[in-house]
Design brief:
Layout: H1 8-20, E1 23-24, H2 25-36, H3 40-52, E2 56-59, E3 62-65, H4 69-85, H5 89-99, H6 104-119
Antiparallel strand pairs: 1-3, 2-3
Helix pairs in contact: 1-2, 2-3
Length: about 120
């Protein structure tokens, strides 16, 4: 699997794309100039790198995602659980909830998600 991890600045750039997609690459460079103070070559270089990582695509000057925001962060979460908890989601949840109290609505939402996955097996 290719490396899809992003640094802080790359993540901000990705968020700009997800927020505006599909977007013309020229318009993207204008937004990045305003929000990140980037020149056009910087925008195009970072875009090329993220396209090589398989997160975005630039087809005929129109930039769009290959991975949605949810898919990307889901993959990052999976990698984190795999690396930090040997792939054990229950171990992750136990560690997470030992430091953060879940509200009743969060607990009910988690139960609902699990029940839905159990029913779809």
């Amino acid at each position: 699997m290719r490396d899809t991890k992003l640094g802080v600045v790359e993540t901000r750039f990705a968020e700009i794309i997800w927020e505006h997609e599909p977007i013309a690459s020229r318009e993207l460079s204008e937004i990045c100039n305003r929000e990140l103070n980037w020149k056009r070559p910087t925008t195009y270089n970072v875009l090329r790198k993220l396209c090589e990582k398989g997160i975005f695509q630039n087809v005929d000057g129109i930039v769009s995602s290959v991975l949605s925001r949810e898919e990307y962060y889901g993959m990052q979460g999976e990698e984190f659980v795999e690396e930090a908890f040997q792939g054990s989601l229950p171990a992750f949840v136990a560690a997470f909830t030992s430091r953060k109290q879940l509200s009743d609505s969060e607990i009910n939402e988690l139960i609902s998600i699990i029940q839905g996955k159990k029913e779809n097996k």
